[in-house]
Amino acid sequence: MLDRGGMRCTWLQGRENIAKRNLIQVAGFNLGVLMRALVGCGTPRERAEAARNVFLFVIRTDSATGIVIIVDIGSAPAMLAVIAAPELD
Fold first, then answer.
1. Which of 50, 70, 66 lies closest to 58 in space, CA to CA?
2. Which 8-state DSSP code applies to residue 41?
3. Contact between residue 67 and residue 58 where contact means Cβ atoms under 8 Å apart
């Protein structure tokens, strides 16, 4: 975390305070990794500057629910569709 996560030296006193600081730092780092994997941008500011179009559709019927995500990355569109239906007996 000190090398790549941007974590600074801790000047807090007590193990509990240091553990809290480390937990928040690691959680933020992991959130950035997750955002980069899902959206392609690691911070909200970076996402706003990217100016990509993202569309989310949720379709629900009596027999199934569908979620569709359409993303325009540069000039190449990408789509993810997930459909969940209950198991029939």
1. 66
2. -
3. yes
Question: Tens place of pLDDT for every residue, the chain, 89 residues?
Answer: 555 555 666 666 777 877 787 788 888 888 878 877 877 777 777 767 766 677 888 988 888 899 898 887 777 788 888 888 887 65
**What are the distances in angstroms from CA 89 to CA 10, 60, 66, 84, 85?**
58, 21, 21, 16, 12
| Separation CA 43–CA 35 (nearest Å) | 7
Please give the model's pTM, rounded to 2 decimal places: 0.41
Sort residue 72 into left (φ over 0), alpha (ψ -120 to 50) or beta: beta
Distance separating alpha carbons of residues 3 and 64, to the nearest angstrom: 47
What Cα–Cα distance (Å) separates residue 86 from each residue in 5, 62, 63, 81, 89?
A: 42, 10, 7, 17, 9
Q: What does the DSSP 8-state code read for residue 2?
A: T
